[in-house]
Amino acid sequence: MNILLIGSGGREHALAWAISASPLCDKLFVAPGNPGTDQIARNVDLKVSDHAAVIDFCGKENIGLVVVGPEAPLVAGLADDLGTAGIKCFGPKKFAAQLEGSKGFTKDICANYGIPTAAYGRFRDKAAALTYLESHGAPIVIKADGLAAGKGVTVAMDMETARAAVEDIFAAKFGSAECVIEEFLEGEEASFFVLTDGKNALPLATAQDHKRVGDGDTGPNTGGMGAYSPAPCMTPALCQEALDRIVKPTIGALSDMGHPYVGVLYAGLILTTDGPKLIEYNCRFGDPEAQVLMMRLKDDLVTLMLACCDGTLDKVSARWFDDVALTVVMCARGYPGDVEKGTEIRGLEGASAMEGVEIFHAGTAAKNGVIVANGGRVLNVTARGRTVKEARERAYAAVDRIDWPEGFCRRDIGWRALARED
Ligand code: AMP
């Protein structure tokens, strides 16, 4: 079967790595891809927002499955248009993708189905939002309703910050002038991933990421500075609770609404003293969590994805290597603010040849035969090991082999898991 993968980040390089290893995959195309995917697949210059062009390409290249990496094409309805054209798509249709596309949509499902989440109010009116703020006080969390590339959330520890966040949203700084204001939850954050065909849910291995830019989980939030799998905090009992109380009722809700969810559902949780609570859904794999999950997946990814599309997920299972996988994200200096592009990166070959190491490209470009930085998050240096300690040592040994003075990374990825191991 020929497969088209949409996206260009580290997540997509890791997915391409797993898909290209599948016995079911003949040709793999990635649109637009990056220099890493270019080594294992064919990068194609397709305008993904032009759904007719994507469908046309699928016809010409006899594509049997489209895998959508990022959320934006799903929220824009790419899976709907592919479905109408009779092309299988791993990823939810527009209605179901609102789980990520609209915080209010998700909160309303939680309210209607008794799914544990932070108490909230949903506002289209600034005055009402400000009144709610005053009556609840800080700490409090303010979220813009639409997709905001991770930037629309303010965790306000004081009222001044909270009021400013509401003002920003109603000045349409994040697109939609609608917001959700919710209770501040305390606890460790964890990610929980399941595959679903709309009826059945197959939990994947656990993973945890580091969102803050600085060591010790300090500084501003980012797209993710590193991740590891398994996540020791997600015990089997907590996974079962998250599955039964959060994920399964959500899948059931969408099915009840006549819009079954197909693809990977990623629940962002806070592990409170009252059990896991949902803070957000994403309608795609996490980046960098996909990188560590793909390193540990023993079974064939394409078989699992097709089972989601075909409604046969109850017939398959997913097995995982016992090894720990850990990824360190290397960023261009200045990230998550403005970064310099075009700086040269050397030593990738030597680093990726090290035992247990895979380097997934994200914001890189190939220029005159050399690899240069072309974004904020640039490389995912990923390693497997028997323990967190071993995986981490391998990953940082590979990081240290990479010659890129203009880059930086956190030096403490996996610190919580490492502390639990000791
Ligand atoms: P979200 O985009 O909804 O995942 O929010 C981004 C980040 O804000 C999360 O990863 C959490 O660190 C934090 N956050 C979101 N909602 C809450 C909440 N209700 N209580 C505490 N922190 C939150």
Percent in helix: 25-40%
Task: Output the structural class.
Answer: alpha+beta
Proportion of residues in β-strands = 25-35%
What is the strand tally?
Answer: 24
- Biggest beta-sheet profile: 6 strands, antiparallel
What does the overall shape look like? globular
Please give the radius of gyration in angstroms.
Answer: 21 Å
Termini separation (Å)?
46 Å
List the ligand species. Answer: adenosine monophosphate
Low-confidence stretches: none
Which whole number gives the mean pLDDT? 95
**What is the count of DSSP helices, taking H or I runs of 4+ residues?**
14
Salient structural properties:
422 residues, alpha+beta, 5-stranded parallel β-sheet, 33% helix, binds adenosine monophosphate
Task: Write a compact overview of the structure shown.
With 422 residues, the chain is of the alpha+beta class. It has helices at 10-20, 51-60, 72-75, 78-84, 94-101, 103-113, 126-136, 159-170, 236-256, 289-296, 301-310, 348-352, 388-401, 415-421; strands at 2-7, 28-32, 42-43, 63-68, 88-90, 120-123, 140-144, 153-156, 179-183, 188-196, 201-203, 208-209, 212-214, 218-221, 226-229, 263-272, 275-282, 324-332, 344-345, 357-361, 364-367, 370-373, 377-385, 407-408. Helix 1 (10-20) packs parallel to helix 10.
Description:
This protein has 422 residues and is of the alpha+beta class. Helices cover 33% and strands 28% of the residues. The protein is built from 14 helices and 24 strands. It has helices at 10-20, 51-60, 72-75, 78-84, 94-101, 103-113, 126-136, 159-170, 236-256, 289-296, 301-310, 348-352, 388-401, 415-421; strands spanning 2-7, 28-32, 42-43, 63-68, 88-90, 120-123, 140-144, 153-156, 179-183, 188-196, 201-203, 208-209, 212-214, 218-221, 226-229, 263-272, 275-282, 324-332, 344-345, 357-361, 364-367, 370-373, 377-385, 407-408. Strands 12, 15, 18, 20, 23 and 24 form a 6-stranded antiparallel β-sheet that branches. Strands 3-2-1-4-5 form a 5-stranded parallel β-sheet, with helices on both faces. It is globular and about 60 Å long. The mean pLDDT is 95. Bound molecules: adenosine monophosphate. Adenosine monophosphate is lined by residues 118, 141, 143, 150, 153, 155, 182-185, 189, 211, 268, 279-280.
